[in-house]
Structures are given as C-alpha cells and as structure tokens.
Amino acid sequence: MGSDMAGKTSPVPPLAPSVTDACGRILEAAAKLFSEQGYDAASMNAIAERANVSKANIYHHFRTKDELYLAVLKRACREHTHLLDDMVRNTGNPAERLRHFIAAHMQKLYAQSSVTRLILRELLENGPRRGRQLAEEVIGENFARLVGILREGQLRGELRADVDPAVVATVLVGANVFFFQSADLLRHLPDAGFAADPKRYTEMLALILLQGVLQAPVGNDATNTAATDSQGGSP
Amino acid sequence: MGSDMAGKTSPVPPLAPSVTDACGRILEAAAKLFSEQGYDAASMNAIAERANVSKANIYHHFRTKDELYLAVLKRACREHTHLLDDMVRNTGNPAERLRHFIAAHMQKLYAQSSVTRLILRELLENGPRRGRQLAEEVIGENFARLVGILREGQLRGELRADVDPAVVATVLVGANVFFFQSADLLRHLPDAGFAADPKRYTEMLALILLQGVLQAPVGNDATNTAATDSQGGSP
DNA sequence: TTCTTGACCGACCGGCCGGTCGATATGCCA
DNA sequence: TGGCATATCGACCGGCCGGTCGGTCAAGAA
Fold this sequence. Notes:
homodimer; mainly alpha; 9 helices; elongated; disordered C terminus; DNA-binding
C-alpha cells in the first residue's frame, strides 16, 4: 500500500531510509537477523520473510548479500556514532565527567545491543579487513573526545600526567564492552554478583580507575575528591 | 605392559588424543577452521580435507557437526584452563603479583589466539546457552584465583578494602581481552600508538589499576611503591 | 583359516542457499 | 493515450551443505 507519510504522497529520496519503505524494512530485518545469527546463518529467505517482501525484491535493492550486509553495517556505524553527544558532559571536574561517560557509554551499549553485537562480531570475524573502517566510523570520534577529556584533566593538574590518556580510554571502553559481552558468563561466577547490574559495575569501575586499588598511604582526604562528589552535588 | 618404546608399534589408547591419530587430526583441523571461520562457514568437507580423511570418516568418529564442535570447544576449554598455573605467582607484594598476572594473562591470550577467538565467538553467539559451561570450564578457576590474590592483598592491608575484588578482576581481564580482540581497530586510532605492543599496554594497565588516574594530593612516595619496583629489582 | 569388529572410503541424497529470470503492477512524463 | 522506469513478485537454477550407505581392508579371536 502507498500512503507513506501522513496524507502526503511524495517520492521519498533514498537519503533517509524510512522504516515504512520496503528498502528500510529490508535493512531493519537484515540488521536484526545479522546481529542475532551472524552473516551465514541469516539467510536471504529469512530476511525477506521478516521484511514482508519477496527475496527477489531484496536483490532489486541490493546486488548481493554482501552489499546488503555492508549497508547494514554502515547504518549501524552511523547510529552508533550519532548517539555520542550526550555522553560527553562539559561540566564538573574530571572525575565526575569520567563517571558520567562510563555510565552513559555502558547504557548506549545496551540501548543499541543489536548494533553493538553486530560490530563486535564484525571485529572478531573480519578485524584485519575492516579494522580501519570500524575505527573511523564507530569509535573514532568517540574515542578522540574521551581522550580529550582525559588530557584536559591532566593539563589542569587534576589527573596524573604519567599515564597515557589513550590507554585509560581503552581500559575504560574495554571494561564496559567486556562486561556487555560476557554478562552471560559472569552471571555464573560465584564472586560476580554484580553481573546483573551494569549500573553498579560502572560505578565501581569508575572508582577503581580514579583511585586505583592500592591502599592510600597516609592521608586519605585526597581520595575523597572523587568519593564525595559521587554523593553530594553542589558545584 | 610397559615396553612400548622406540621400534615397537603398540596400539595407542584413545585416552590421549594424539596428533598422528586420525581422530586427533580431525579435532585439530576442526579447531583451526572453526576458530578462523566460525561454525557455519567451516564446512565438513573442508575439515575433512584439512585433516586428510574422508568426510565419512568424520561421521564415523562424531555423530554430527554439532558434536564435533562441542568436542573442539571442550578441548579448547581444557587447554585454556590448564595453562593457568604459571600465571599465578605466590611471591612478591600484591602490586607485583598483579602486574605479573596481567602480563601473563595477555600472553596466554595471544599464545592460544585461535582458542581465544573460538571462545569469544561462542560467547558472542551462544552466550545465554553456554554461559554456564564457559564460566565453569574456561575462566572459573582462573577468575577465582585472581580474586583470591586480590582478597589476600586486602586482608594484608595493602589493597583498598572498599573495592570489590571481583570487579577488579573483571576490569583486568576485560581490559586484556578487549585489547586482544580490538587490536586491529585500535591500530587505526591516532592516539593509540600502543596498539601493536601488548606488553607496553599491560604495564600501563597495571599502573592505572594500581594507582588510579587521579592526581595524588600531597606525598607521592607511597605511589612509588608500585612505580619503583617496576623499575628496580633489589628487595 | 574363518569370523568379527572397527577404521576408513567413494559415491550419493535431499534440502537449502545465494542468486536469476521473466511477468505484472504502478506511477510519471509526453 | 502510450511509453518507460521502477517496485514487486513467483518460480526457478546450479551448487554446496550436512549427512547416509554400502563396501573395503586390516587386525585380532576362534
């Protein structure tokens, strides 16, 4: 049936792939199945059925299965990147900004879990081939801004200057991603009661990254810089 | 029953799956192909060809493709677990033991990279189904001993008591695993010059976990507890 | 020697896969 | 109105897949 938009029947340009469009339905169905079952297991027949189109119709819009997969991947990259803005908060001290970033990042991983899985799978299967593309389109900007936050904290003398900000960013993102992909495993470890509570995990992760695990030697009032403003809130 | 030394052709019991044995060759070929290409893409024909046996022979030893895959997975789990011993060192202060563990863990990830990939893929594709098995057979013991190290450090008053050791262990393992699976991506990030140097990464990771990223307030001689014994060596 | 057993093989099967081929239906421009 | 591009479809194809079948061969038991 036609009536795509409300009342208006305009030829929608393919720049914005809408959901009502058959092409959009195909992309959506493909994204779901690719991320759930992987490239091989997601058959074109299944994608066509889920998108309520004929298989031949898919091949009218995409030349091959690989081209469809690439389109899905690109779209996923765009989705993942564009949701970055509210992860970076420009107020508060570095500790608070870091805590906010970690929590927001974890939340995004779960909010777009199917996209996240798709990208993780792609990294695992075709890392060498598509590493560059994923670096530029998925986490490039994200990563650079996080490194920027950390570097600024160093310049202001609030963060240690003798650690590489990029390593900190990697550890941070890695700890979140690992939690995301291993939650099903962690749930069965006796010591990991936090496995079902990403929020609690991110808070503890932030604390560890900020303060470290070594016992503070003499005065512990300084470590409270991070501990207290996790509680109180006056600027 | 002893003298089956050089020169004698004795019937090798199947308890130790040797490499010369056809069954062992099948398992080895399957492990390689499964870990490189995934379950679907690794065809029984290809496995048979690589193992220099007929496809029918595989079905003589394993009832289905799934059973073969399970056998490969179990074997991988065993390999992964049994290499744990030298990762845990019982000498030195907690900081040094932690640093050693991180480095050894990363090294194992790379030394058995195909097994690592296999398990990561399994976690991604069949997490809910096989989470328990992976938890018990792959990282269970490993994880528990690492948590033990940390808890002992807490009891001795050398590590902060207000952090969950299991969270620290998760962050540590996660940071290593993420580095392993994302190295192809990190290599293309401008800030991540460490992407090609796992050793350097583990050292910086240990430093961050031990000391945190916050600037120490007054006396920094205590943080040197970890920083110096990474350099010097005299007790 | 004969019988039995298990490792092993070439050839084959039904089924699903990615992909193709006309045919139709629906606008849009003249 | 007629043409023309686009969207969509059912039916079909060759090929590969997981899996099966009947048979061979060698070694031990009798």
